[in-house]
Design a protein that fits this description.
Alpha-Beta Plaits, single chain, four-stranded antiparallel beta sheet, alpha+beta, 5 helices, 159 residues
Length: 159
């Protein structure tokens, strides 16, 4: 009988060594290492999807904000007057914003709009009076920063 218990004990030990804890866990209806790996994978997938959803929501919010900003800029970009005193024209949006900020800090009311050439003009005055536009251009030229040469833009007749 002792021999039987020794053989059974060795067989059980060998079975545990060969299958690890999974044999015992499965015997007690507990999750095995394969089950635990599957749960970890599901959790990792859920976290990845949550991160992707958050990134997509942020991108959508950023896009909506940019669209609102661009819509406002477009509304401001249509010339309302016939003549404009242009302090600068740029292809780069950052330069438009810097020039506009500097002019506002100097006390000017700035309007910017796209020219047919693709440049964005930054104007310090819009008027329907040609003489007033040229007088203001001359006055601004006296106080303009070095290298800035203002000019008058004729937007054409009002429609």
């Amino acid at each position: 009988m002792q021999l039987f218990f020794r053989i059974a004990s060795v067989a059980l030990s060998a079975a545990l060594l060969a299958t690890g804890c999974d044999f015992v866990r499965a015997s007690f209806n507990k999750p095995t290492s394969r089950d635990l790996d599957s749960l970890r994978q599901v959790k990792a997938d859920a976290e990845r999807l949550a991160a992707q959803r958050a990134a997509a929501e942020k991108a959508a919010a950023d896009s909506a904000a940019r669209a609102a900003r661009d819509s406002q800029a477009l509304a401001n970009s249509v010339p309302q007057n016939r003549y404009y005193v242009i302090a600068g024209s740029f292809t780069d949006r950052e330069n438009v914003e810097k020039c506009s900020k500097d002019l506002v800090n100097d006390g000017y009311q700035v309007v910017s709009f796209k020219l047919r050439s693709g440049y964005t003009a930054v104007a310090i005055l819009g008027t329907d009076n040609k003489d007033q536009a040229y007088r203001s251009c001359s006055e601004y030229a006296k106080v303009a920063p070095s290298g800035v040469e203002p000019w008058v833009y004729d937007a054409g007749p009002k429609k």
